[in-house]
Design brief:
Elements (H helix, E strand, L loop, with lengths): L2 E4 L8 H15 L4 E7 L4 H6 L3 H13 L6 H10 L28 E4 L4 H13 L7 H6 L1 H12 L5 E7 L5 H8 L3 E6 L3 H15 L7 H4 L3 H7 L6 E10 L1 E2 L2 E2 L1 H20 L14 E5 L3 H9 L9 E5 L2 E5 L1 H15 L3
Parallel strand pairs: 1-4, 1-5, 2-3, 2-4, 5-6, 6-9
Antiparallel strand pairs: 7-8, 10-11
Helix pairs in contact: 1-14, 4-5, 9-12
């Protein structure tokens, strides 16, 4: 029963679509298991994909927000604020999830979703204050385990042979992102081949684990990891760095893409060599890296229709009044890459 968080301190790296693809393909490949998806982004992009995209998803999501309690991660956090240090009972968790296939038949029936919610931003200061209360002595620890409590309750409620959980995290290192990361066993870091992605990964190391260049070590010692260690809150192990939207040439990453990726791979490799305790077991440094080709129209169609890559059909698709064509070769290429990443989990 493993939990995978997807996070980079930089936005725009394709994190939500990658979470969507991994969760759906994992569910299809493991029909006897259940897959729990937690959307911790206030924009709820992942949720809209799961609910079928287009205008229908937004209407359904607004309907969840009108329920009492809100059927969303915001509703769950709101309920925890009323009694911050006492977990909800397993049967109470039912109020906050939805099975997307009841709305979007493209999604496997063994997928369960706790929808994203813009309420997270409004609740963040109240959550931070709850975590800093003088009493109980372990207030911070208990708040950081809110999502772990939810996952544990779902596992207790589930009758499946196994539950795999995927958490889509907001790029900012806000308190709800910290709670999300503390719930995970493993961290998957998507990135694109550019300097801003490299800086985002540097911040992942510094913010979450206290790993930083010498001139920043003074700040790193004040890091979240120090607090987590003192409070005995486990942090996720770094699992895979996914080079997302790779530009291909003759079946291989282009030379320009390789050149821009090299500093990122060097940064990760150095961190792994000197801080092995933060990394999942690996036989070779290369085991830390995976590649997803540039999706182009495949991602546009799949996300707009809320359709997993392996179920996407070739041909013409109507997307917001425009006709978009997808060929089977592109679908097969992207599905193969997604399944290869699923096999690593």
């Amino acid at each position: 029963m493993s939990t995978y968080a997807l996070w980079n301190n930089k936005g725009g790296v394709g994190k939500s679509f990658l979470t969507f693809s991994l969760a759906c393909e994992y569910a299809i490949a493991h029909p006897d298991e259940q897959v729990l998806v937690l959307d911790l982004c206030p924009q709820a992009n992942l949720t809209e994909m799961m609910l079928g995209g287009k205008n229908t998803a937004a209407e359904r999501l607004d309907g969840f927000y009108l329920e009492r309690p809100r059927r969303s991660v915001g509703g769950y956090f709101e309920s925890r604020l009323t009694s911050p240090f006492v977990p909800l009972l397993p049967f109470e968790i039912i109020k906050y999830w939805v099975q997307p296939y009841t709305i979007n038949p493209n999604i496997p029936q063994n997928v369960f979703l706790v929808p994203g919610d813009n309420l997270l931003e409004l609740l963040s200061e109240a959550i931070r204050q709850a975590s800093n209360m003088a009493l109980p002595m372990d207030a911070w620890q208990k708040v950081m385990r809110w999502l772990s409590d939810l996952i544990g309750s779902f596992n207790e409620f589930s009758l499946a042979t196994n539950v795999a959980t995927f958490v889509d995290c907001n790029p900012s290192f806000s308190v709800y992102t910290q709670i999300a990361l503390c719930s995970a066993d493993y961290l998957i870091v998507p990135y694109t081949a550019d300097d801003s992605s490299r800086r985002g990964i540097e911040n992942v190391f510094a913010l979450l684990y206290g790993i930083a260049a010498s001139e920043l070590q003074g700040y790193a010692r004040l890091s979240f990891s120090v607090k987590a260690n003192e409070e005995r809150v486990n942090l996720p192990q770094l699992h895979t760095f996914v080079s997302n939207r790779v530009t291909m040439y003759k079946g291989k990453p282009s030379s320009a893409f390789d050149a821009k990726s090299a500093p990122i791979k060097q940064l990760v490799s150095n961190a792994a060599l000197h801080n092995k305790r933060y990394f999942a077991k690996m036989n070779d440094i290369r085991d830390l890296f995976a590649e997803m080709p540039d999706y182009h129209s495949v991602a546009v169609v799949a996300s707009s229709e809320g359709c997993p890559l392996s179920l996407l059909r070739s041909g013409h698709h109507d997307i917001d009044g425009e006709t978009v064509q997808v060929n089977q070769t592109s679908i097969n290429k992207h599905t193969k890459a997604a399944l290869k990443l699923v096999e690593r989990l």
